């Protein structure tokens, strides 16, 4: 009889840490470890705004899987279906070839994708922000618009090219606006045909304040930093329609722009919809051990799993990297226990706090729920990321040091085509990857 196979679908925070833990707690002959993922790296999503802002090389947020997971066989493909009765998973690789993988234990850690809403023009004209390709494209696109705005002779075209709209004032949108504003400021150095007052960054959200998930002691300072830099923060309003040259808001105002980035939120990966399992708001129902009650050999963790939070009346844990990482580790230990190695545990974890990097010397953070702003928060934010990153720490630290000591490089490479990074295209080809 061959070794039992453990199949992990998705290598975001939950999947990666599940595999890392399995390699540590399981003897080499205890199980065959297989991972299914469309890329050969684990994406450290929290630093994507710094890639878009030009302060980090794109490779810094991509942690190679094979050196980190030497005992895991990587199948570079998209999972398209799971047969629970036959214990198989169908995958399709980048060349469209289909393969069926058998499993004895399966862990669903496919993550999440951008949440689209039925707003006219969003799918056709808005950009997503969930992948390296989207971050790299956005950096080039912003720099290109600055260049074209300087050359434009028509005032309307000039205004539209020099205006950048970000929808969603959560962690990603707030950090992206902060990094983008610093990028355009750097791009204006040496230019005489375009002034800083002509560049406009607009942050839009239905919430009554920036960073609504944090306390007023942090969201207030963050909003003040953005406004002091000239960011136009529009709260308690949203987008009503988008065209190639304009964003119309629900308050009736129209913003001329050729750049709208959608950071409104995420939803569980569509793979969940193809599996006949009970769900809560699209997330797979699991018990506190992260196993599916009706299928004890099926586990789920991270954004696709409705893990009960014992510290919040059993409601599903938030979709955060912090929870995903810890759930991945627990899933690994419980899978090992099901194979006769170790004991079963249940999920218990309180949030340790959050960090929001506002570029430059500014940040807000609440480590262990102690609110910090300015340089102390900046130090905590960068220290947290260096600890949380599974790899590339030295390279990231060097990039940060270089950005501190030297002027930010503002160059366009044009490596990522526009096709595929707009939200409608991302939904079709699966560009949006799990967090």
Give a quick summary of the entry.
With 435 residues, this protein is of the alpha/beta class. It has 12 helices and 26 strands.
Write a structural description:
The chain has 435 residues and is of the alpha/beta class. It has helices spanning 13-25, 48-52, 65-68, 122-125, 132-151, 155-161, 171-187, 216-228, 321-338, 374-388, 393-405, 423-429; strands spanning 5-9, 32-37, 41-43, 62-64, 72-76, 78-83, 88-92, 98-102, 105-108, 112-114, 163-167, 200-205, 232-235, 239-242, 246-249, 254-256, 259-262, 266-268, 279-280, 283-285, 291-292, 295-300, 305-306, 355-357, 363-365, 372-373. The protein has a 6-stranded mixed β-sheet with strand order 5-2-1-9-22-21, covered by helices on one side. A 4-stranded parallel β-sheet has the order 13-12-11-17. A 3-stranded antiparallel β-sheet has the order 6-7-8, with no helix packed on it. Helix 1 runs parallel beside helix 9 (321-338) and helix 5 crosses helix 7.
| Gap from first CA to last CA | 36 Å
Helical stretch tally: 12
* Overall number of strands: 26
Largest sheet properties: 6 strands, mixed
Strand order of the largest sheet: 5-2-1-9-22-21
Tell me the overall shape. globular
